[in-house]
Amino acid sequence: MAMLTVTPPRTTSAPNWFLRAFGRNKITNTSPSKTSLSSLCEEILKKSQAAFLSGKTKPYQFRIKQLESVVQMLENNESQFLKALQHDLHKPKFEALLSEIAVIKNEAIYAANNLEEWMEPEYVEKTLSTALDECYVLKEPLGVVLVIGHWSFPLQLCLIPFIGAVSAGNCVVVRPSETASNTAELLQNLLPKYLDNECYHVIYGGHKDAQNDLSDLLQHKFDHVFYTGDATTGKLVMQAATKFLTPVTLVLAGKNPCYIDRNCDIYMAARRIAWARFVNAGQNLLAPDYVLCHADVHDKLLKELYTCVTEFYGEAPEKSPDFGRLVSIEHYQKLKELLGCGKLFIGGKSDEGIKYIAPTILLDVKENDPIMEKDIFGPVLPIIKVCALEEAINIIRKREKPLAVYVYSSNFKVISEVMSRTSSGCFCSNDSGMQNMFLTLPFGGVGGSGMGCCHGKYGFDTFSHRRACILRNIGIECVTYLRYPPYVDKNLSLILWASSLSRRSSGWCQIS
Predict the structure, then answer these.
(1) pLDDT tens digit string along 408-441?
(2) Phi-psi region of 251 (alpha: psi -120 to 50; beta: other; left: phi over 0)
(3) How far apart are CA 418 and CA 408, in angstroms?
(4) How do residues 74-89 score in pLDDT, each as one tens digit?
(5) Where do runs of H (alpha helix) occur along 120-221?
(6) What is the pLDDT of residues 264-303, one digit of tens each?
(7) For residue 466, what are the β-bridge partners?
(8) What domains are there in the chain, each with its CATH number?
């Protein structure tokens, strides 16, 4: 296929699967399906490990072919993916193409366009003592990696890290979310038809006891685990991985704050916030989770939010073809419980039969309300009135570090103040939810919102081992003898002189 060019621009109790995995309140399960799944995991791992040890995934041309195959799979089966996403999340075609299919295709194309450069050894600065040696960093694949996707964007959150792992030369096992079952089944059926069957696998059991399925996977040794999802499960995935000292990347949900300054284009802010909160029915890791609005513009913001929500979805959003549905009855019920917080401004209408909750805005929410403590993952936006920037910053800093911090202001000093005094996986001013569209920026969390990242070269680096390589010159024994006993002060002085660095006025180092 022709290669396109892309211009880079709270519950804390452990679930049953975790207790089972670590032997506490151990459950004995001898059902044929569980035994079969466990055997399948072992079989796939052995096959993947043998393929990796053969060196099959390392050549540049092999990686390129697999990346091109990802694009081909999406292009050839676009209508099937759109249908699956519609069934799982009632996702409109516009949203599905933009946030799932297009972003994955761009990710694969960007990786293919830059892969040769990424794979090149990185030569490092040398001192006089190593001037005749070859010193560089070699980017090596880790081995067999596990990618655990999330149901909110069931295609993107599987295939974006998958592309990073493939470009780095790894074998990959993908575990899509059983909650978005139609997309998971389609991925399981299509990926083997396009990509190498020895190196890339999809494990999807389709069982109701999906957490136990996940525990079975984590009982096997992978060379890296990439997990996207909620913080509670993320902590348990990380703990399970310690059994094999397996490195883990976690991209976790969190309470993303959004500050509205008194000096701000409220018309623009309302539309961008409403889109980011209500797209995909609010089931979005990067959505603004609560708004801290300056008292001077509070009423104006509410007026604009009401207007733009009506413009977006009409007077009856349940009839709008552009508004999604919650992914499951369980998720619907959890979210419904949070609607009792604060005072209802707009929305609040719900229908369990179609897993529908209207775009909802809550006022007079308190910092310790349940909706401010739990992940929302739905079309509900709490708004807290604040009297000053300092108050907003203090509220943000009291909480775990979020995946994203947003600020809307026409004053650069305000933007700079929020950016410098808060910490988050990413930061965005005067827009929301667009960060993962930029292939040249890392996507990941910090602290309570995770560790590590993906996207573009950052994904390649996540799944690569940076191996330090020194190829020493064998003809300089007349110099290296200085390090051998018996030790002499004169020899020590010569070695220190040859290997020392001194500071330049510009801040760079140079040989003494």
Answers:
(1) 999 999 999 999 999 999 999 999 998 888 889 9
(2) beta
(3) 10
(4) 999 999 999 999 999 9
(5) 156-167, 181-194, 210-218
(6) 999 999 999 999 999 999 999 999 999 999 999 999 999 9
(7) 139
(8) 30-252 (3.40.605.10), 257-439 (3.40.309.10)
Neighbours of 508 (CB within 10 A): 9
Provide the b/e sequence for 87-120 (b: ≥16 CB within 10 Å). Answer: ebbbbbbebbbebbbebbbbbbbbbbbbbeeebe
The DSSP element (H or E) to which 259 belongs, if any, is strand 257-260
Element (H, E) at 257: strand 257-260
Return the ∠ at Cα 471 (arms to 466 and 477), rounded to 5°: 145
Can you tell me the distance from the alpha carbon of 261 to that of 341, in angstroms, rounded to the nearest whole number? 24
- Among 486, 487, 512, CA closest to 499: 512
Most confident of 32-41, 45-54, 125-134: 45-54
Residues 268, 10: Cα–Cα separation, whole Å: 33
Amino acid identity of residue 484, one-letter, is: Y
User: Where does residue 418 rank: exposed (0-12), middle (13-18), buried (19+ CB within 10 A)?
Assistant: buried
Burial class (CB in 10 A: 0-12, 13-18, 19+), 451: middle
